UniProtKB/TrEMBL annotation, chain A:
Key words of the record: Oxidoreductase
Organism: Methanooceanicella nereidis
Matching InterPro entries: 4Fe4S_Fe-S-bd, 4Fe4S_Fe_S_CS, Coenz_F420_hydrogenase_gsu, Hydrogenase_assoc-protein, NADH_UbQ_OxRdtase-like_20kDa, NiFe_Hase_small_N_sf
The protein, known as: Coenzyme F420 hydrogenase subunit gamma
Domain of life: Archaea
SUPFAM superfamilies in alphabetical order: HydA/Nqo6-like (SSF56770)
Enzyme Commission (EC) number: 1.12.98.1
Presence of keyword Oxidoreductase: yes
Positions with biased composition (Low complexity): 17-32
From TrEMBL, chain B:
UniProt keyword Iron-sulfur, yes or no: yes
EC number: 1.12.98.1
Protein name as catalogued: Coenzyme F420 hydrogenase subunit beta
Domain Coenzyme F420 hydrogenase/dehydrogenase beta subunit C-terminal: 95-244
Amino acid sequence: MGLLDKILGKTSGAPSKEVTAAPTAAPVTKAPEPVKQEVAPKKSEEVKVSKPKLAYVHLSGCTGCLISLSDNYEKLLDVLGAVDQVYNLTLMDQRELPEGKIDIALVEGAVCLQDEHSVHLIKETREKAGLVIAYGGCAATGCVTNFCRGGQANQPQHESFVPINRVIKVDAYIPGCPPTPEIIYNVAIAAVTGDMEYLQPFLADKGGYACGCDLFTKIVENGLCIGCGTCASSCPTRALEMQFGRPSLNNTRCVKCGACSAACPRSFLPVSQIEKKLMV
Amino acid sequence: MAFGKYKEVYALKAKDNAVTGVAQDGGVVTALLCYALDQGIIDGAIVAGNSETPWLPKPVVATTKEEIIAAAGTKYTISPNVAAVKDAVREMGCDKLAVVGTPCQIYAIQKMRLYPFGARHVPDKIAMTIGIFCTENFTYQGLKTIIEDHCKVPIESVKKMEIGKGKFSIKADKDVAIPIKETHKYEQPGDHVCTDLTAEFADIATGSIGTPDGWSTTFGRTTRGTELLKKAIAAGVFESKAMADVQPGLPLLEKLEAAKKDKAKKHVEEMKSLGLFVTPGIIY
Ligand SMILES: Cc1cc2nc3c(=O)[nH]c(=O)nc-3n(C[C@H](O)[C@H](O)[C@H](O)COP(=O)(O)OP(=O)(O)OC[C@H]3O[C@@H](n4cnc5c(N)ncnc54)[C@H](O)[C@@H]3O)c2cc1C
Ligand code: SF4
Ligand code: SF4
Ligand code: SF4
């Protein structure tokens, strides 16, 4: 499958450690239109990519990520129409991962180490899927499940929840608690149209784990913050407040979703995409 | 071109006295926002309003002309305008929002439109971005020190601040100007990797460099920005001149922008040589 090779070629083959938002050498078919407009996936004969087989793997989370995906309303049909969904516990009558290879596994939720089924499921997902995407905070960083202390009915032994990259290799991350409907839509359309430039910042070798602390270790303490306030407006729990032009973190509110770090214009700056897609 | 792509450029000055009386330069930002609000092109704008602390701005979602005019004038310290975006859209219900910001804030908004990580239902509500030129910005404590220790004037008595012609000047009970050199150490460090003087990625970008006092150099960079400018000019909102007919004109802007880009490149190299993280994509 051409698309998958492209994405995987990027994640495993790319020697560069440096994150770059600059155009890549990867063949970009056609960039999607600016987000503002309706972006319909191109007809399959134009894209010359067969529909990727998608498994939606649901571990320990609140289902908010799935709901956010469906909050694309009628545009959800673009996303669902672009893939061949082979597994989705919440939406389909199919209890186990199907036999054989899957192209993309979108994983929501953290792995509960005391739940044998979860551990097996994520391992099996890795074996079967070409591309494993940690979709949303819980899968990516543990997010709210980091705060679980066990002891609850009816599974009191369920105490430790870890991001999926603690158990398997992850190819890409979509941060946020939940990720916005728009970001998952954009990722899906970029994947279908082969817009590798758009997908770059999500790839594992470009980072992945991000939380409120990274704003400080990477941006503020590094003398890069310019006080724009993007981090504060991106935070779902209002853990960040701007004080004298710098973010101030209330770490008891921070759920480690990573949205702030990902959104900060000083974490990466997609200049060439802004030029191409917005400066029209 | 050092100062980014554009479709049209004009020298402009607002005609409305209520605007020019309070605006920093040609009143382009304030007059344009008022016009766009009148025409229903926008239904709100994020601007740098006043807080209880003298000269410490706070982001305000202005939905009336009075609020837009009340926020006119440059505050030479950080106003985290992007922090108000989600409130503007989700709490105040703006569907057609304009955002005013420094070039780095415009980057943030444009990145947010492409990568709305935490900006649910925001990207399609950004109707206009108006960038103001920016050479550097100061922390609030820095600005206060410049005014009280260097200019020796209480900050609450200051009526206007300006940077230009190599000087930092204030209008207060007495007018004071000091060499801009004295202020350099109060710049926020994040500015030193900044390559953008002229808001290269805003729909409309405006600033004083290039035009005589009281006028503004104004670029229409995108179709929607240029259309708004043309409409406003046709409606008589501005006195307008061709950039070729004013002094010092675009060559000065080009020179200063190139110098800013060079400086940023050098600083980035220094940071890299120390093994520090530097924003990917920031040098272009
Ligand atoms: C820190 C800083 C540095 C600048 N440096 C230069 C420069 O080197 N060269 C140059 O030509 N121009 C510079 N400018 C821009 C210039 O000072 C004027 O803001 C610009 O020319 C617009 O003038 P106007 O009369 O059209 O705007 P006005 O009608 O006076 O409106 C100005 C708008 O900017 C907003 N604003 C004010 N302060 C801030 C702030 N700190 N952050 C975000 N928004 C703000 C106001 O709310 C208002 O909406 C700078 C501005 C700032 C804030
Ligand atoms: S500060 Fe907010 S946005 Fe950042 S990781 Fe924490 S919860 Fe998420
Ligand atoms: S988003 Fe803006 S204010 Fe927040 S850390 Fe990054 S540069 Fe600073
Ligand atoms: S110099 Fe650059 S980074 Fe600093 S405030 Fe101005 S536009 Fe922002």
